[in-house]
Write a structure and sequence with these properties.
Length: 359
């Protein structure tokens, strides 16, 4: 039996408010606990998007009632909400600011660099900024971090050119950190036919699955990767198989077995796994301690991934049928067994907001 610190997932879409048929704070945090994750940071591209104190209250009050693991909620940067100096209370209750600098699912997007500037200027210095920025817009985002002399975290990098850029920026002392998703480590575009089963929408995700050379570059530059994040982006099977499939893969229940399989195969060290799923995200996102919190895994148990056994509401996984090694037996959160042998042991509402003090 292997004991690990509770995983921190800084990139999760929980779909509440607005699309709880895909996921909500209850089903999403249940999937997190089953996956050995004890903190999720929820993205703001909901309906409505979370971008001010009113919408933040909507998300946080749903989370307070329904979340089973600990959580934070991002605010989204839009064209008209950059006067953060007047909204410091909302900023400080949030996980951080998410900036969508490339097109993606949902309404939040900053198409023009003049819209980026006031966010970089006004968002409180001590609070995280996360950018969805691919390829050249990533280079621009890193330049902004340098110009405004503040840290930036780059979401879901997937290309060789991106990891080389981040490596070079770090070597020059720019305060940039990054995350990589399991689907960009374990899948390439060559896997799309086997994920799709004749439904091309199943292979759609942003950033898109990349080439084998890109995937290899992630593994070769493991030291440049700060965090592993799922970008858990649940859409139902019917939606994925429709005419207009939304992009996104679920990931909360598969991240740890996939990474443990890589540890078994000697592609990853256990120390790297702990650094990138707990120590680094805790520091980058300035998260509080979770006392008496850990995950117990049976690192030798082999099993087959089956969406039908999952807690996520979306009902599918791109890793269906994969043979993995390392089963989450038990997740303990703040002294309580929260998940054990396939069953949830804490009620909806047990989870806490990571920006609220412990008392
Ligand atoms: C995400 C979603 O569905 O919300 N989709 C995705 O493919 N990753 C949006 C996002 O993270 O950009
Ligand atoms: Zn995302």
């Amino acid at each position: 039996m292997l004991k690990l610190p509770g995983l921190i997932d800084p990139h999760v879409h929980l779909r509440e408010p607005g699309a709880i048929h895909k996921e909500d704070f209850d089903s999403g945090t249940s999937a997190a606990l089953a996956g050995g994750i004890t903190v999720v940071l929820a993205m703001p591209n909901t309906k409505p998007p979370i971008f001010d104190s009113n919408t933040l209250d909507i998300a946080l009050s749903a989370a307070k009632q329904k979340a089973r693991c600990d959580y934070g909620q991002y605010l989204g940067a839009g064209p008209e909400n950059s006067d953060w100096g007047n909204h410091l209370a909302a900023a400080s209750q949030s996980a951080g600011l998410k900036m969508y600098l490339d097109s993606t699912f949902g309404e939040l997007r900053l198409d023009d660099m003049t819209l980026w500037m006031p966010h970089f200027q006004n968002w409180p210095k001590e609070m995280p900024i996360v950018a969805h920025s691919e390829s050249r817009s990533m280079a621009a985002a890193i330049l902004f971090a340098a110009l405004y002399d503040r840290p930036i975290h780059i979401a879901h990098i997937s290309l060789k050119e991106e990891i080389l850029l981040i490596k070079a920026a770090k070597e020059r002392g720019i305060k940039v950190t990054c995350e990589v998703c399991p689907h960009h480590l374990f899948l390439s575009k060559d896997d799309i036919p086997s994920i799709s089963h004749g439904h091309p929408g199943r292979g759609e995700v942003r950033p898109r699955l990349a080439t084998k050379a890109d995937v290899n570059a992630m593994w070769e530059h493991m030291d440049v990767i700060d965090c592993f994040a799922t970008d858990h982006a649940p859409h139902t099977v019917a939606e994925k198989d429709s005419e207009n499939p939304p992009p996104g893969f679920p990931g909360l229940e598969t991240i740890l077995p996939l990474l443990l399989t890589a540890v078994h195969d000697k592609r990853l060290t256990l120390d790297d796994l702990i650094q990138k799923t707990h120590i680094n995200p805790k520091r980058i996102f300035n998260l509080p301690d979770q006392p008496e919190t850990w995950v117990e895994v049976d690192e030798d148990e082999q099993y087959e991934v089956k969406a039908s056994e999952g807690f996520t509401r979306c009902g599918w996984t791109p890793f269906e049928g994969w043979k993995v090694r390392g089963r989450v037996r038990k997740t303990v959160l703040r002294g309580q067994t929260a998940f054990e042998d396939g069953r949830l042991k804490v009620e909806a509402g047990y989870g806490r907001n990571i920006r609220e003090s412990a008392n």
